[in-house]
Every structure is written in structure tokens, then in C-alpha cells.
Design a protein that fits this description.
Layout (H helix, E strand, L loop, with lengths): L2 H28 L11 H4 L18 H4 L13 H34 L6 H15 L12 E3 L5 E3 L7 H15 L4 E6 L18 H14 L4 E3 H7 L17 H19 L13 E10 L2 H6 L7 E8 L5 E5 L4 E5 L31 E6 L7 E6 L7 H4 L5 E5 L8 H7 L4 E6 L2
Parallel strand pairs: 3-4, 3-12, 10-11, 10-12
Antiparallel strand pairs: 1-2, 5-6, 7-8, 7-9, 9-11
Helix pairs in contact: 1-4, 6-7
Length: about 425
């Protein structure tokens, strides 16, 4: 076929794809129906909330700010004219919030249908990545959003920019002081990310996660904050850094999460008076249910199947008796059973590389508040963990050694942490972060 005809055919195909995309967006806009106002009471939104195959409610609204409001100031000053003006502006903002939410929902719908849901979208992205690979373009723009690069051993890495850590260190120290005033211990845990500090061609050159973490650790030690650096522990244990993580995702493997739970348990035993059996975390006491070629992580999704290869995904189970109660108010979860209650099986029910996230099977994903009671322990110990998605495969094994384990993701929890801590007693408050 002549080259001119090939160009004409390619142009026609591109126009057809764009036409289908716009038709999809237009149809979605024409059939759009706004959701009820976000400030409506949950029982007014839906008589029977939508549940998935696991019986889990999605999009349940919990007004955490109402449950845990900011603490009142000791002395309320007389409001000034400026305060009253600000109150009026805030009232106007609250009045327009339902309409803003509808506009945001419509914008998100348009964005979704112009990208992920557009006909042939993933095929077009795959073709673009194949073209980049053909030209040898192996690195996404370092200044782009979440740039992904290929490290040795075919592991993908998401680069982190250089960050100042002084303000964050002061925030952590303030929480330590707040806890201490209420008789609660505090521990800050630094987790590794997918960049090994010994990746000398990447760490400190393209990715600055480890340098940021080093500065934060130094500032915390200077402030007298108790810390645990799992980056050091990982290498001291002789573990391969890359093989401790998924190849196509920035999260660590569930086996690594179990190991991390064991290291945290050792610290709780040594420094905080706990009595957790190290054998609970021994690999030989566990079995794995493997879903072969089931997982394409967030980095793999970005570079598509044209560059990334799907990998196995595992759910771990202890080979000894367990019994837990888990409560997640935002998902209407209240279950009692063995270790399996920690998994949302709907996330691994089918293999869908681009539209499913199997990692959310661990601990039901990211939620504002999760409460776990280990019904086989009677020591009365209580632990609160503040973290994000990295702790989802750490907290279930850690719960084996603690009678009461609560978890808060501050990205989802809109209430006052200070009020929550005033109303709940913990032996230790742990911050577990990859920052």
C-alpha cells in the first residue's frame, strides 16, 4: 500500500476514534443526573445503600467532623466585625456546596469518559508507549505527575521530588507531645519505598525519597521523637529491596508487610511493654493463595501492558487459629471471623488489569477509621496506627499480637484527631508512613 494511503488511513482512524469518544462524552452529559446534596443525612440519601458482592457498602457518608469536632478554645474572644464578615462568607460557601459538588461530579464524569472510558483509550495509550519504547524513551518527564522510570531487574519506580522536612518534623513532634500529655506513647515509623537507597543511578539523582526520609529522621531524632526506620531493618535482615516490592506497583508485597509487622512487634515488646510472640510472623506458619498473572499495579497501568508484564498477586493466611471482629463505619462493615475477614474478595473476583485494583483487597483499602478486636487476646493493649495504603498489608498481621488495633487514614478522616484521641485511650500511637 502506498505511503500516502497509509497516512490517510491512519488519519481516518484517528478521526473515527475521536468521534466515538465525543459521542460517549455527549451521551453521558445528556443522561447525567445529579446526586443528592452531600450534606443530606445518610438515611435520606438512600433507603438501602449499594453493596458489592462482599456485602460492603460503597460511598457511605460518615460525618466525621460532626462525630469528632475540633476542640473548643479555652476562652472564646468577642467576635469582631471581621469575624462576622468571615462567618457570612462561610455560610454562603456552605449554601453553595451542594451545587459545587454536582459540578465537580459532572467534571469528573466528563474527565472519565474522555479518558479511561473512551472507546479504545487503553489501546491508544499502549500504542503510544510502544512508540516510546521503539525510540528508546525509557524515562517519563521527571517534572511530570508521578514520573515512572525503569530500575534494574525490570522494576518500575515512581520518582519523588526533593522536599523540605522541617515543618513535617515539627508536626510529628507536636503530636508526640499531645499524646504524652494524655499518657500515650508515640512512635514514628519510616517505611521504604520502591527506590532503594543503593540505587545510586536513581536515588539522589532522579528520586529523592530516601534523602527526604533521612532529613526527616534526623530532625525527629533531634526533637527526641522515638523512631523506627524500616529501610535500615530491611537491609539488616538481608532482604532484596526490589524483590520486597511489586514490580509494577509502588506498594510492597504482603510478605514484606508481614515482615514489617514483625519488626514493629519487636519494637513494641522492647520499648513499650508488649508481649507479642515473634512466631506469629514466621513465614513457615503461613500459606499463600496465589492469583497468577492477576495484578497490574499503578505504575504498570501508567506505562500499560506494552511495557509492563502482569504479576502474581497473593493473599496470605496464618496456619493457626484466629478470630477477629473488624468494623469499618464508612463501608458499613462489621464482621467477625478468622483472618479472612481482613480481605475484600470482590477486588480479586475477576482479572481486569486496567479497571480493578487487587491491592484494595488488603484491609478493604483506604478508609477513614477501621477498628479491629482480636478476640483471642486478653491483654487489653490498644494501638492506634495513623497511615495510608502502605499499612493495609501490615495491620492484619500486626493485629495478631494486639487485642485492640485501630487505624486512621487522615486523608479520609475529616474529624479532629485531637478530639478523637481525647475520647479514646491507646497504649501507643504509631505513625506509619511513606512520605
Amino acid at each position: 500500500m502506498p505511503r500516502r494511503s497509509l497516512y490517510d488511513f491512519a488519519a481516518l482512524a484517528a478521526v473515527a476514534a475521536l468521534t466515538l469518544m465525543m459521542l460517549g462524552v455527549g451521551w453521558r452529559m445528556a443522561t447525567y443526573r445529579p446526586e443528592p446534596p452531600p450534606d443530606a443525612a445518610p438515611e435520606q440519601v438512600s433507603a438501602e445503600p449499594l453493596r458489592d458482592a462482599d456485602g460492603i457498602v460503597w460511598s457511605t457518608r460518615v460525618d466525621w467532623a460532626a462525630l469528632y469536632p475540633p476542640r473548643e478554645a479555652e476562652e472564646a474572644a468577642e467576635p469582631t466585625v471581621f469575624d462576622r464578615f468571615a462567618d457570612g462568607i462561610e455560610a454562603m460557601r456552605l449554601a453553595t456546596r451542594p451545587y459545587e459538588a454536582r459540578v465537580e461530579a459532572l467534571e469528573q464524569t466528563i474527565d472519565d469518559y474522555a479518558t479511561d472510558y473512551a472507546p479504545g483509550y487503553h489501546r491508544m495509550v499502549e500504542a503510544a508507549n510502544r512508540y516510546d519504547a521503539l525510540l528508546g524513551w525509557e524515562i517519563a518527564g521527571v517534572q511530570s505527575y508521578n514520573p515512572v522510570i525503569m530500575a534494574e531487574d525490570n522494576y518500575f519506580i515512581t520518582c519523588v521530588a526533593r522536599q523540605d522536612r522541617e515543618a513535617r518534623a515539627a508536626q510529628i513532634a507536636a503530636l508526640r507531645d499531645f499524646c504524652a500529655a494524655r499518657g500515650m506513647a508515640h512512635l514514628y515509623v519510616t517505611t521504604p519505598n520502591d527506590t532503594c537507597r543503593y540505587d545510586t543511578g536513581i536515588s539522589g539523582v532522579l528520586d529523592f525519597y530516601n534523602q527526604n526520609a533521612d532529613r526527616l529522621q534526623a530532625a525527629l531524632r533531634e526533637a527526641g521523637v522515638a523512631t523506627l526506620d524500616l529501610r535500615d531493618a530491611l537491609h539488616e535482615a538481608g532482604m532484596d529491596h526490589h524483590k520486597s516490592f511489586y514490580q509494577t506497583d509502588h506498594h510492597w508485597l504482603p510478605e514484606t508487610g508481614r515482615w514489617a509487622a514483625g519488626v514493629i512487634a519487636q519494637t513494641l515488646n522492647a520499648d513499650y511493654g508488649f508481649d507479642i510472640d515473634p512466631a506469629l510472623f514466621a513465614p513457615q506458619c503461613w500459606r499463600a493463595e496465589v492469583y497468577e498473572d492477576w495484578f497490574l499495579g499503578s505504575q504498570g497501568k501508567k506505562v500499560t501492558l506494552s511495557r509492563a508484564t502482569p504479576e502474581d498477586f497473593s493473599l496470605l493466611y496464618p496456619d493457626f487459629d484466629t478470630r477477629f471482629r473488624i468494623e469499618i463505619p464508612s463501608l458499613d462493615v462489621d464482621k467477625t471471623g478468622d483472618y479472612a475477614v481482613f480481605y475484600r474478595y470482590g477486588a480479586v473476583a475477576e482479572r481486569d488489569y486496567y479497571n480493578q485494583s487487587p491491592y484494595s483487597a488488603y484491609f478493604y483499602g483506604d478508609n477513614a477509621l477501621t477498628r479491629v478486636h482480636n478476640e483471642l487476646r486478653v491483654d487489653g493493649k490498644r494501638v492506634l496506627v495513623l497511615g495510608h495504603s502502605f499499612d493495609n498489608c501490615v495491620l492484619p498481621p500486626l493485629a495478631l499480637g494486639v487485642e485492640y488495633l485501630d487505624s486512621i487514614d487522615l486523608r479520609e478522616f475529616t474529624g479532629s484527631l485531637e478530639t478523637f484521641l481525647d475520647e479514646n485511650r491507646y497504649d501507643v500511637v504509631i505513625e506509619l508512613y511513606t512520605e
